[in-house]
Write a structure and sequence with these properties.
The chain is an alpha/beta fold. The chain has 22 helices and 16 strands. It has helices at about 5-35, 35-40, 45-55, 60-70, 80-95, 165-175, 195-200, 255, 270-275, 355-370, 395-400, 405-410, 435-440, 455-465, 480-485, 510-515, 520-540, 550-560, 570-595, 605-620, 655-660, 670-695, and strands at about 100-105, 105-120, 125-130, 145, 150-160, 185, 205-210, 220-225, 265, 305-315, 320-325, 330-340, 380-385, 410-415, 425-430, 490-495. The strands form three sheets. Strands 1-11-13-12-14-16-15 form a seven-stranded mixed beta sheet, sandwiched between helices. A seven-stranded mixed beta sheet has the order 3-2-10-5-6-7-9, with helices on both faces. Helix 18 (about 550-560) runs antiparallel to helix 19 (about 570-595). The protein is globular, with a radius of gyration of 28 Å. The two termini are about 55 Å apart.
């Protein structure tokens, strides 16, 4: 065989030399990457151990924070709100976090004046009724009121409407009692107070007074804004930081539909009972008297006495401020793990929300200690302190709207704690792909109430396991904009199911120290769960998302929906899309296995892993509909947004739930087509999520 030309042999040697250099470069790059934790002085596993070790003495630190945050009421947009804002800012900074603040000026609502009295049928004064709160003798807090209640003056007979549900009005109708032209008196139940006011207005009531049984001297404040979240004057974009910038006029239809049409007011139980005891008309049903301290049987009204109610609202632009502490990621700084809690309160806010704020500050302290030990997370961690949540999740929503493009492409997860502690027992809600991670972390945390057990052990004993993780088809805390608008996977968690001092002056440090969590060990448990979730999501090379839980949950939803549908409506599109998602999930699980088996020292492995993580992160965005739900464009999540009908039997598939409620009185072809269309929309959303998991173009 003839020898090869010299120039060919030289070329071969050059190619071989170049190839060896390339392998050496890739090896050294991957070698540095795989030991990057050591380079920064603390591995991810060691960081988790140290984070938990920093629990010693944390209860005293958290108690100190909570006492400092709750010395005075701090309603959003008022001068007193600056004190806790400054405190959070200084604590983030002292923990070693990079700190910044963002201001907005949304439309907020405050009480100017109010009066309430009982009149005889001839108009003579019978008695004046107080609108103060016995639990706040110093009157330090803003007087009880409903934010965004319109001004009004009403003199009319009263009618008791029980909880103010549709079924309660049906009972009254059968008794021959109508609320039109009257003042409705309702007691608090499980439904959003704004829905109770809206239903009373739809029935023709002129005003509504709302009370809570066994109120312990407190009166529950709250918003009655309707239909969405965020500043009502800037739907879809961030409220400007001053009086300039674009805003809708308050008289525009898009804005007016969010405001209640009749005035309303929260009143003390004692005040409500004085009115109820004067009512004539048909006898009050026995079940409507449950928990009411009425001395004798009475009617449901109307009258014969008259209620004289006046309310003057002060609605204005007010400054609010969100505060952030950032830990930049070392390898994926453009991927964000966001922890958030709101800071504003109706009164002192020891439970709602500053038990969460104090806990967030402890998480910041621990993360700061990890930083000083040489740790830096793989991904960026953002600690967020929101303002004006109580007025309708305004602070968080404005920030999401301002940064929607960035969050859509870069936000990995949002971890929310509102009321960290309001009693005993752990509760959690999550998008399903986070179920397994939540359980793993709960198994690592000592239960604060039962020695020798974990939070998971006690949670299973009380709630029965993973099936009791709630889905976030509600809009009552700061996860709302992240999930319902931006499609960011989310968790919400807290201790204690019910707090009787909710939104009253009873929500103070004394109650927490004596009743809610005297040892502050429940606060520690929340800090540990919250912080570990953040560390896992920021540091795990492959995001700990398990979408099999999603497929299982969707099948359960489909089964529940099937029981509510009329004949002629097909669930085949939905079931087929769930089958497709399940297949995509199984393929993703196989890819996880391969990524874990390959040599981690090569650069292309890191690129493949990052691309795969993006698919896991972006799959949730597939469930969004760009145009939003029908008539409610600010809610875009087709699986978990709140339904329009607060009495709906579905807490998922909100578009389908809306169509069923809107066509409840019709069985025609048009009604079936409306429901079927919404089923197709959900099916297409699930198909988009499956395509995202596969990495396919949509």
């Amino acid at each position: 065989m003839p020898s090869k030309p010299l120039h060919f042999r030289g070329t071969s040697l050059f190619i071989l030399f170049f190839f060896l250099l390339l392998l050496l470069f890739l090896y050294s790059f991957g070698h540095r990457s795989s030991y990057s934790d050591r380079q920064y002085g603390l591995s991810a596993t060691d960081a988790q151990r140290l984070f938990l070790a920093l629990s010693a003495g944390a209860n005293a630190t958290i108690a100190f924070h909570l006492q400092a945050l709750t010395r005075h009421p701090h309603l959003a947009g008022t001068p007193s709100a600056a004190v806790p804002a400054s405190y959070v800012l200084s604590q983030f900074r002292s923990s070693g976090l990079r700190v910044f603040a963002v201001d907005y000026s949304p439309l907020l609502s405050y009480p100017a004046s109010a009066s309430l009295s009982l009149l005889r049928s001839d108009g003579a004064l019978l008695r004046s009724l107080p609108l103060v709160e016995a639990a706040d003798p110093s009157a330090a807090a803003v007087a009880p009121y409903h934010a965004y209640s319109p001004s009004g003056a009403v003199v009319a007979p009263a009618v008791y409407v029980n909880f103010g549900r549709e079924e309660d009005y049906s009972v009254l109708h059968r008794m021959g009692v109508e609320v039109k032209g009257c003042v409705a008196i309702a007691r608090r139940g499980g439904e959003y107070r704004g829905a109770v006011v809206a239903r009373a207005a739809a029935k023709g009531a002129k005003a509504l007074l709302l009370f809570k049984t066994a109120d312990l001297g407190g009166v529950e404040r709250g918003t009655v804004l309707l239909g969405g979240v965020g500043d009502p004057l800037t739907p879809g974009w961030a409220a400007p930081s001053d009086e300039g910038g674009e805003r809708l006029d308050a008289e525009e239809a898009e804005v007016k539909r969010r405001f209640p049409k009749i005035p309303s007011m929260p009143v003390a139980e004692e005040v409500a009972l004085k009115i109820l005891s004067t009512l004539g008309g048909p006898t009050m049903p026995p079940e409507w008297r449950d928990d009411l301290r009425l001395a004798a049987e009475c009617g449901v009204g109307p009258g014969p006495m008259l209620v004289n109610f006046t309310y003057q609202e002060d609605r204005k632009l007010a400054k609010i401020q969100n505060i952030f502490g950032i830990i930049w990621g070392r390898e994926e700084p453009d991927r964000y793990v966001i922890l958030g809690n709101h800071r504003d309160a109706w009164t002192f806010g020891a439970v709602d929300p500053n038990s969460g704020t104090a806990t967030l500050l402890d998480v910041a302290r621990r993360y700061g200690s990890l930083l000083r030990s040489g740790w830096r997370p793989r991904r960026t961690i953002i600690l967020s302190s929101w303002d004006a949540e109580e007025f309708g999740m305004i602070g968080s929503t404005e920030w999401v709207e301002q940064n929607l493009g960035l969050l859509t492409s870069k936000a990995v997860v949002y971890l929310n704690v509102d009321c960290a502690v309001q009693g005993d027992g752990f509760f959690a809600g999550a998008t399903p792909q986070l179920d397994n991670l939540l359980v793993q972390v709960m198994k690592q945390i000592q239960d604060p109430d039962i020695k020798g057990t974990t939070v998971y052990d006690n949670w299973v004993a009380n709630h029965g396991g993973v099936s009791k993780i709630e889905r976030l088809g509600r809009a009552d805390s700061d996860f709302s904009a992240f999930l319902h608008i931006a499609g960011v996977p989310s968790i919400d968690m807290f201790y204690g199911d019910v707090f009787r001092g909710y939104h009253t002056a009873l929500d103070n440090f004394k109650w927490m120290a004596e009743h809610g969590d005297p040892s502050f060990h429940r606060h520690i448990a929340i800090a540990e769960i919250w912080g570990l979730l953040g560390l896992r999501l920021a540091d795990d090379p492959i995001l700990p998302f398990n979408y099999l839980s999603y497929a299982t949950q969707l099948r359960e939803h489909a089964t529940a929906l099937d029981a509510l549908l009329d004949e002629g409506i097909s669930l085949q599109p939905l079931n087929t899309s769930i089958d497709g998602l399940t297949a995509a999930i199984r393929e993703a699980l196989e890819e996880v296995q391969k990524l874990q088996e390959v040599n981690d020292t090569l650069h292309f492995t890191s690129l493949r892993r990052r691309a795969f993580n993006d698919r896991l992160m972006l799959a949730e965005r597939g469930f969004l509909e760009a145009e939003g739900l029908k008539g409610r464009p600010w809610f875009k999540h087709l699986l978990y947004s709140p339904p329009e009908d607060f009495e709906s039997k579905l807490s998922f598939f909100p578009g389908i739930a809306d169509a069923i409620s809107q066509n409840a009185q019709s069985t025609g072809k048009e009604a079936r087509s409306s429901v079927q269309h919404e089923i197709w929309r959900v099916a297409r959303g699930i198909q988009r999520a499956a395509a995202a998991l596969r990495g396919e173009p949509i």
